[in-house]
Amino acid sequence: MIRLQDLSELRQQVQALDTSAAPEEHSQLDHALHMYIVECSRRNYLKELLLQLYQLIQRFRLAAFQDPQGVARAKREHLELINAIFMRDYEKAKNILGLQLLHR
Predict the structure, then answer these.
(1) Rg (CA), the chain
(2) What residue ranges of the chain have pLDDT lower than 50?
(3) pTM (2 d.p.)
(4) Helix, strand or coil, per DSSP, at residue 9
(5) How far is 4 from 40, CA to CA, in rounded Å?
(6) d(C-alpha 83, C-alpha 46), whole Å
(7) 3-class SS letters over 37-69
(8) 66: CB partners within 8 A, 6+ apart
(9) Cα distances (angstroms) measured from residue 53 to each of 48, 56, 88, 90, 103
(10) What is the reported pLDDT for 64?
């Protein structure tokens, strides 16, 4: 179950992370946010799938976070995702996650 306190902390981290931070920092926060959501879903197969996927595409994720426009877009999408979950607008959250998959 998603805890609003945990989500609030993640939102603060996303807001505080400067767009000029190292790609590794952006990648770690991206990973933390998505893993938190998946872990809260209590679907172990989804968690395992995401972990395997991240291992396969880590190099591409780091490259994506070297592009300032990509970083700004990811930050905006992450904040929109977190806000949608706060508002319990799960349809919007699902759509945002789908958009993120298209942009990667």
Answers:
(1) 13
(2) none
(3) 0.85
(4) helix
(5) 12
(6) 22
(7) HHHHHCCHHHHHHHHHHHHHHHHHHHHHCCCHH
(8) 23
(9) 9, 5, 27, 23, 15
(10) 86
Of the candidates 76, 73, 35, which has an alpha carbon nearest to the alpha carbon of residue 54? 35
Cα–Cα dist 82/18, whole Å: 18
**CA nearest 83: which of 96, 72, 74?**
96
Length of the chain equals: 104
C-alpha span between 48 and 54 (Å, rounded): 10
Report residue 50 as tokens. 């995401």
Cβ–Cβ under 8 Å, residues 75 and 17: yes
Domain map (residue ranges) of the chain: 4-103
Judging by beta carbons within 10 Å of its beta carbon (0-12, 13-18, 19+), is residue 42 exposed, middle or buried? Answer: exposed
Block residue for tokens 């919007």: 92
User: Any idea which residue has 């905006």 for tokens?
Assistant: 76
